[in-house]
Write a structure and sequence with these properties.
Strand order of the largest sheet: 2-8-7-6-5-3-4
Bound molecules: D-malate
Helix content: 40-55%
Shape: globular
Structural class: alpha/beta
Order of helices and strands: HEHHEHEHEEHEEHEHHHEEHEEH
Number of helices: 12
Distance between the termini: 62 Å
Number of strands: 12
Length: about 400
């Protein structure tokens, strides 16, 4: 018999979204005619924009021709795509050689565990995107510090109270809260990582949603960040590529381990060894997304989801709930002040709306719900009508 990886037993029973799906299915079995609206998982729903879709089809079609066929590509990604990301998304603050194309951030977060091994200590925001913690546990990392992010600290951790850790994960715009860190806060974070000789893993998957021009879209807008930070980027939420799969990780050449060796060299070794590069079709789609037409299309897609986010945000503000997010992020984080899974059930049964219980993202999420803007405008409007009705009625009952 083969012994089980002992770290797997340390994980919480199930990943959050399968649990939500289980409850959704159970509800639908009992109520087969219910028309559920999902504002739960942050998965894009709207069709690809035309030019981006065309780039993908041309790539697929090309594979059927002698001139257009390609097999394995460079493991680090196609040079044109790396250059375009450097130019369009980093304004050449970052060298294209430091950009490693991947099949998405989640996959890269998994591979990052190989880069750092089992001995490192980590800090994560609480509430937190579960993938950082779960993949760290799978690797056998044991020291996990939770940085409380709550209304009391404006969803930015009090760094003066934090112990040193080797790695600091930070996501802005944040999943799940939708809060964004401003320039001064990011400067603090970079100094903190520098003083502690930590590596910051900055998740910028939602950066395209930032509308406020004063909020940095990448950690590399902060001077010195290229000496301490790795950044994760993704086409999932800006181009609708959650199913197509395309992302990247920036590992700057200046980043060093304690022994002076380059982090980038090890990352290159990892991607060359256990990853054969992102799909050639998706990479050509990415190149199309980053030309002039593609950029305009991505802006359009993001604006559509942000419109939904604002509708949801406005509703909760109108009903008097404390709300964050939804302005520079596709998530609206609402404080219900009641156990999150109870609110989940109440919204499911009373409004036929699925939202994500905040407690699923960590202890500091208890009492909150996350509403995702990744739906159609029509469904979002319908959800707003249902939620208003249900929540107003619930409040009336509470008053009586
Ligand atoms: C979420 O709902 O948080 C998403 O699934 C995040 C992701 O892209 O993995």
């Amino acid at each position: 018999m083969v012994s089980r990886n002992p770290h797997m037993a340390k994980l919480k029973a199930g990943y959050l979204f399968p649990e939500i799906n289980k409850r959704k299915r159970a509800f639908l079995e009992k109520n087969p005619d219910a028309k559920l609206i999902s504002l739960g998982i942050g998965d894009t729903t709207q069709p690809l924009e035309k030019h981006i879709a065309y780039s993908l089809t041309q790539a697929a079609f090309g594979l059927g021709t002698p001139e257009g066929y390609s097999g394995y590509g460079p493991e680090q990604g196609q040079p044109v795509l790396r250059e375009r990301i450097a130019e369009k998304l980093y304004r050449n603050r970052i060298h294209s050689d430091d950009i490693f194309i991947s099949d998405g951030s989640k996959c890269d977060i998994g591979r990052l565990q190989l880069l750092f091994g089992s001995e490192v200590s980590i800090a994560v925001q609480d509430p937190v995107y579960p993938v950082y913690v779960d993949t760290s546990i799978m690797m056998g990392q044991q020291e996990i510090i939770y940085m409380n992010c709550s209304p009391e600290n404006n969803f930015f951790p009090d760094l003066s109270k934090l112990p040193r850790t080797d790695l600091i994960y930070f996501c802005s715009p944040n999943n799940p809260t939708g809060a964004t860190a401003n320039r001064a806060q990011l400067e603090q974070l970079v100094s903190f990582a520098k003083e502690n000789k930590s590596i910051l893993i900055f998740d910028a998957a939602y950066s395209m949603y930032i509308q406020d021009p004063t909020i940095p879209k990448t950690i590399y807008e902060i001077p010195g960040a290229d000496e301490i930070a790795i950044e994760l980027g993704s086409f999932s939420k800006m181009a609708g590529f959650t199913g197509v799969r395309l992302g990247w990780t920036v590992v700057p050449a200046k980043l060093e381990f304690e022994d002076g060796s380059l982090v980038k060299r090890d990352w290159d070794r990892i991607v060359s060894t256990c990853f054969n590069g992102a799909s050639n079709i998706s990479q050509i789609g990415g190149i199309g997304a980053l030309d002039e037409l593609g950029m305009a299309e991505m802006q359009n897609m993001v604006s559509g989801y942000l419109w939904n986010a604002r509708k949801l945000r406005d509703l909760f503000v109108e009903l008097g709930y404390p709300v964050v997010g939804g302005d520079n992020a596709p998530y609206v984080w609402v404080n219900f002040g009641e156990p999150s899974w109870d609110v989940f059930e109440s919204l499911l049964c009373g409004a036929q709306v699925v939202a994500t219980p905040g407690s699923g993202f960590g202890g500091a999420g208890e009492g909150f719900m996350r509403f995702s803007a990744f739906n159609s405008a029509k469904n979002t409007e319908e959800a707003v009508v249902r939620l208003r009705k249900h929540l107003t009625a619930t409040k009336e009952v509470a008053r009586v």
